[in-house]
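Input set for joint prediction.
Command: fold jointly, output tokens.
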Amino acid sequence: MAAAMAWLRRGARGAARRCGLAAGRSYSGGGAYPSVSLTCPLPGVPKAVFAAAEGRERFETRVTVLENGLRVASQNKFGQFCTVGILVNSGSRHEAKYLSGISHFLEKLAFSHQELPLQQLGLLSLALCPVPDEEIEMTRTAIRFELEDLNMRPDPEPLLTEMIHAAAFRDNTVGLNRFCPVENTDKIDRDVLHSYLRSYYTPDRMVLAGVGIEHEQLVECARKYLLGVEPVWGTGQSRGVDRSVAQYTGGIVKVEKDMSDVSLGPTPIPELTHIMIGLESCSFLEDDFIPFAVLNMMMGGGGSFSAGGPGKGMFTRLYLNVLNRHHWMYNATSYHHSYEDTGLLCIHASADPKQVREMVEIITREFILMAGAVGEVELERAKTQLKSMLMMNLESRPVIFEDVGRQVLATNTRKLPHELCALIGQVKPTDIKRVVTKMLHKKPAVAALGDLTDLPSYEHIQAALSSKDGRLPRLYRLFR
Amino acid sequence: MAARSVCRAGSAAGRALLWGPRPSAALLTLTRKRGAATYAQTLQNIPETEVTTLENGLRVASEESRQPTCTVGVWIEAGSRYENAKNNGAGFFVEHLAFKGTKKRPGSAFEKEVESLGAHLNGYTSREHTAFYIKALSKDMPKVVELLADAVQNCALEDSQIEKERGVILRELKEMDSNLMDVTFDYLHATAFQGTPLAHTVEGTTENIKRLTRADLASYVDTHFKAPRMVLAAAGGISHKELVDAAKQHFSGVPVAYKEDAVPILPRCRFTGSEIRARDDGLPLAHIALAVEGPGWADPDNVVLNVANAIIGRYDRTFGGGKNQSSRLATLAVEHNLCHSFQTFNTSYSDTGLFGFHFVSDPLSIDDMMFCAQGEWMRLCTSTTESEVTRAKNYLRNAMVAQLDGTTRVCENIASHLLNYGRRIPLEEWDARISAVDARMVRDVCSKYIYDKCPAIAAVGPIEQLLDYNRLRSAMYWIRL
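tokens >
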């Protein structure tokens, strides 16, 4: 007991010798710098007067529209700092008439442009100062590095996401390349950028969003800096804004790649073939978005050897039915991408190249089973997990900022988190069945990466997804 | 697990002070910097951290912020530093088993309960700390405290689970071998603190993992999971009083006494200037880390060293910005294409630490990059300017505040402060300490730790161009008239 008490004393670090002058190395050289150990309060700092959050956090998003069409939205939040930024309704989906990769370029440029002191937003400085040539060259280099990095990584996630979008929305809107293709890095120059900016970076396509900041203050700043300011690319003739609605086509994109030696370190990573099978879901503005989100949570999944404690979905369908039963599968994860006018629900799976056929069949069967019976316990768990994840993500200011900006950009208002939680709570098994049945009628989108010799044909996959049990059509081979 | 990288750097508090958030094009975080008075006011605009100590010595600390979610966790002063060569890896093993069944909730019942609450459970082990924490909705706090108490006190350590986890850990060790940055830092510790417990890796050796038995793990838990060494921390929408009540109910049983009164004492870990080279010309890039001995947690020199690190900055070639980097070393790196990335670190332990930098480069730029980096160190020791110190101080203040975004970060911050400093250091005090730093102080403190000291060096990959140790040692001082 005495020894434990000694530990307590030591642990509390109340020992007098630790306070005051620092023990340890003595130093000659003068210099009056503070030598008060961090375990003791610094003398001379006034005693803190702490604030207490009053009442429940009132989630209140306020939106004001300025005369030039710019929307200013703010969300109050208790705390010491704020996140402010501008969201522009522009992205790779609008690049149909332009060189693919402009948005990627702009993303790099906006941040590197540091003519003005860092307090200003990068985009603001881009608007007010002409961009010198060497900066464009630097951006080209940075993009090339990023593309190189992407290809070197053993994790194929970003590549597969690009591929599945290209397959699902062939040659239009969200199917266009998010990353600048290597060939285009040299073709993009200041004129191309300015012509794009003139059409898409107009005030009515922008939202200035702030979290943790007073609404009036934000509106005042917006009026001062963003109203009546002429951007450097001029407000002249714009080529017209691409308002195309995303068109889901379905299809297949295959990339044969040698994945036998992708490890960056000395330990080899086993060779894997990755496939992603997706179907059209719905946009985040529709009512069916919530059942799709719950469905995605219910499917869950992940890597078969992933680290991390409970809470990552160990009782979701892809774990229970797929990964726990077939130990040769390395990975089975479900994703849901949702945009203003369309959405994509897809499952990513990876395994040894020789087992691609079984892997595809397991995934198609899971899709068909989605339309079957949904257990009560399973559904409740998925709903609770979705609500939890929503609230936990919204702890972070940058996430709130993006949520506010995205919603205001699309609908001019914001659905508050507790409203979303209420909607999640109302999802029933019949809702799941309804959205899945609707989804299964569409053509599938398939992306495949790696050694594809045993990959079933697209027609077979399509047949499996329209069949009753999800099995691939039987292959009759003379020689096995 | 992103948390794994935390354990390499020692603790979240240290990490918070040296790495700011990675800039993203779409988002920029601003502090309201319209005047010193306003900033000081915003620092005070935070809730208080309340600390209560239970009878058995366990500390309960929380910060209430009226949010719908919360993070609650147990932080224990136990880690690989408390292990010896024979049981190195036991702590990591125990962390793996903590959620795989307790006496009250056998098998997968524990995991199922957490999943049904919609909660996320996580844990990590570092050289001096072990942590288990749960993110959940605030209304579930009492249940969460009970689950944590169950995991920490009643871990079943079932034989079948042990065998299963053995395989999982061995596989994880293999995967970690391909994360060259972690490998480099492990080598750095192995050489800098050779012959002492700090040289051990957190995960242990392959032979140990294959050999550890239930008895070893049980004895580790028995020896180290004691109440005075634990902190129950929480942040989010929970009231301190309710938390303390829940803790009294579930944590009062945590043992205090040691068997035969044998309190484990932490021996002093000496630092040895030395190097370790793992040359492999088959790898595409070289990873090099160089460090000198740094101060322990409680030393006030840490603040100045963190300012020094902020002056050197960090860089990755995928950052946009080209030559307009705020750090001199980064500008040099871009102009002469010296490296793919570099970062600085100040890892602290209770009585010692590692202060240095790490970079990744092509095989033929190692010499130039090392020359520039060590040159930057010498410049810091002799001719730091006020303007760069001011910029670094602002960056540090911003990073410090921005790190506290989200209940999990706040919770971790509370717990590590209590374990390292014995108290939660309020933001104004940090601000005052940072503000007191000036160029002269940076020069003095840097000279104290860097100038003419023997460094520890770890290098992995195609490192033929890395010069001999004597050359690198001689770059740690200037011959001046």
